[in-house]
Amino acid sequence: MRPGRPAAPADPPRPRRSGRSVLRVLVLIAILIVVAVAVGSWLQFTERQAADTVHTVGSSAADRVDVEAAVQSVDAVSRELVLRVWVTPRGSLGEKGGAAPVADLSLQTSGATLGDLEFAAHERLTTKDVQVALTGGSISDYPFDTYETDIAFRAQMGGEQVPVRMLFSNNDTLFSVTAEPVPARQEAVVALGLTRSGSLLVFAVFMMVAMWALAASVLIGAWYLTTGSEGLVWPGLAWMAATLFALAAFRNTAPGTPPIGCVLDWFAFLWAESVIALCLVTVVITGVKKSLRQETGPT
Asked: For the domain 54-196, what is the CATH code?
């Protein structure tokens, strides 16, 4: 080094990646995963417990007719549910261990149920599916739609009324069903309330949040492209167009196949599609103007 010339400044020390910071991040991620799995397991367990619950309504006499009624599916569009019924006569009312009635058995249902059930004497009993009409609520409120109905069974054997006990359960995973017993003498009556299951509600809310997040991402990308100096950015346009059509396919994966015009659409889907389409058109128009300006500019 020549005398009189100042020494060159030394390079600042480069920060070293600390192994502890990486370990902390990994531990934090592991904790978040464990918490998420624990919360999900608890929610799944409570929903499973509710689905496995059997509600018992009616008489407990020794000589009675047991009716096992299980919801198989709920059609919110048609506003009806399918109820699978299994009848078992107990005590002196049945023979062969309850496999057949000792006399002709007539099972009368509520007004919401489409049709009564008839069983011949001494013939083996089989399960039967009946349709039950739903009241209240509308599919347009999806995923917050609720419905109500009543289920009742009255049994007559040999022309005389006999006690009935109903064991009600729900097998439709898309709906949660609450059952409230209605006092009756020899009938079994239960009032039902139907709402969307917790897992379906969580997924539907996630869909709405994801739709708005995608729309916001496209909006930010459009702002970046329109304020820049570049013309038509084909990768960006392809991403926006793909998001526009992918969002429609994503909407069709909603459980229960809700029709267009429900709460899901008005809260998120239609607005997100509008924002993405508007951003795509704006970016194309702005990009074309910039490209033409660059071509006609001085060379």
From this structure: 2.60.40
